[in-house]
Amino acid sequence: MIASLASPGLMGFITIFVLAAFVGYEVVSKVPSILHTPLMSGSNAIHGIILVGTMLVLGQAHGIAQLTLGFLAVVLATLNVVGGFVVTDRMLEMFKAKPQEHSGAPDVGNPPSTPSVQDKRTTK
Fold first, then answer.
1. What is the 3-state secondary structure (H, E, C) of the chain?
2. What is the pLDDT of residues 84-98, one digit of tens each?
């Protein structure tokens, strides 16, 4: 029924979209978790290019409908880029070494160590 309502060009686009969705899902689901951060950085670069494209299209828009859709595209592309960088930053934070906290006070559970010979000479 949908095929009788849609033009052949539209059906071709829908077919390509569905196939791309299946292939994309299969490719992304096979990526090991160690590669997610580099892939996220690469996709942020692609989304940045998409943002530039949406701004160029918005610059050529005429009429209220085109301006509204162009503005919406710019806003959504911006959210996508910013969100990608936030996620990438959080993922990179997981790989950083955690700083060790030194309070200066001896541990309560451990008795203080006896001073070394070097320490005895310097205290006189």
1. CHHHHCCHHHHHHHHHHHHHHHHHHHHHHCCCHHHHHHHHHHHHHHHHHHHHHHHHHHHCCCCHHHHHHHHHHHHHHHHHHHHHHHHHHHHHHHHCCCCCCCCCCCCCCCCCCCCCHHHHHHCC
2. 888 777 777 877 777
